[in-house]
Known about the structure:
By secondary structure, the protein is α+β, with helices and mostly antiparallel strands. The protein has 3 domains: 12-195, DNA polymerase, domain 1 (Orthogonal Bundle), CATH 1.10.150; 206-400, 2-Layer Sandwich (Uridine Diphospho-n-acetylenolpyruvylglucosamine Reductase, domain 3), CATH 3.30.465.10; 403-532, 2-Layer Sandwich (Enolase-like, domain 1), CATH 3.30.390. The chain is built from 17 helices and 21 strands. The strands form 7 sheets. The chain has a 5-stranded antiparallel beta sheet. Strands 18-19-20-21 form a 4-stranded antiparallel beta sheet. A 3-stranded antiparallel beta sheet has the order 2-1-3. The protein is globular and about 70 Å long. The model is unreliable at 391-408 (pLDDT under 50).
Amino acid sequence: MALGNVPPDRTLLEVLREDLGCTGTKEGCGEGDCGACTVVLGEARGGKVHYSAINSCIRLAHSIDGMALWTVEDLAEDPLIQPVGDAPAAAACGPALHPAQEAMVQCHGSQCGFCTPGFVMSLFGMYQNHVAPSLPAAGGRMPAQGAVMPITRDLAQQELSGNLCRCTGYRPILDAAQQMAHLPPVVVNEAELLQKLELLAQSRQAPEANSSYIAPTSLPALLAARAAHPAAQVVAGCTDVGLWVTKQHKQYAQILDVTRAAELREVHQDARHIAIGAAVTLTDAFAALAAQWPQLRSFAQRFAGLPVRNSGTLGGNVANGSPIGDSMPLLIALRAQVVLASSARGERTLALEDLYTGYRQNVMAPDELLVRIVVPRPGVTAAEPPPGRPKAASAPSGGSEPHAMGNVGANFLRAYKISKRFDDDISAVCLAVHLDIEGDVVRRASIGAGGVAATPARARQTEAALTGQPWTADTIARAAQALQAEFSPISDMRASGAYRRTVLASLLQRFWHESQGEEAVSVENFRLEALA
């Protein structure tokens, strides 16, 4: 379906509800927090369809041009969603429900029903990403019993973290997530869908130079557009700019979307570095980092709810420069560098912490854009980005981490997020600590902190208190005092300044105990079921 005359700052939710009459998609919070507006996007990637659940309330409508879109109205009626084997195509009273819908019915997962469409769409995304890959194509033989990939309770909790429900208490919804794989299977006819997406791509017209929504498909074109339209609002996943539209009622006459530039959507690796394009989603960026440092998986899952991570980009989070953004403290600890580019002056590279000059202010010129983040791989002592754009990607290698430090060449990394709510919440304090130990001596320390200053900060004084010192309890005690004294955080709705300083010291002490092999007791590894 083609729509015309859509303003550049109109949200996808507004278009769905007000222009297309798809009122099954609900508006709850208007800020990507409750999940009532969740829809699923399908995008062609490497000859396959990539599915992602996203928040339509803060996603700009133009950003999904050329993609497949499913709302809750589509699941039982989309002709591309077809049964496997001899599964019934339709019930006598009308179209058969999708397993995501039928499971919610069978498990009594809906009460007032307002949040239900959003949950169903998150379940649909979960089904496509975890159940459907183990199914044969439409019309194929029914899978053998036990052959369908099950959904675990942990996976269901992780992927529903962006959906809130006031009524059911979540247990029946989690039951529904696990029930989907046991219902008559259906699949999306991806071959036909990919053909439709290809035809759609061919029929799309190149944007005019004076277009109100500019989305170049290459880096040179993007930089040229940035130089030509310095006043245009730059957007990526819109998880922050979307809030300015919905909550601050800002209006933008012209938008520059960086997510169509192919070069910015790539992750490249070589022997020394991981280069993450600025338009790589947070989901994919954290997956690349966690492949090298597996201990970051829990931190990555807590960054935000899955729909936010599926839309938001690492480059957008870094360029936005919010002092409570969680990716920057981690990247500072990982000794990351950012690459800025302009059409007139080419590229320049600087340490990530040197990007910021004040609250949401940075060193970028009006014609510059952040194009990638370069992170040294484990064991590399400093970020030395290769000149120019990285070459072909190499296969990622698994990261490893010793439980206790004190061995020659030991490397230890931890990232901590302190927030009032475990899932989908903004940090009161974020602390990331990365130490290189040789012969029981701290040879190098890199520490990033969030929520404690006007910008994401590097704890240089604390690093100095650790570097060259023996790795002992006395050293960490002195470093904890230095960390408390290094920052003067404000008091706000999330925490008092005194609380933040106390937490900083406590987290560094926790880091010490974990480095000695002591198992941490925290909400991250607490399981209520284990105590039942």
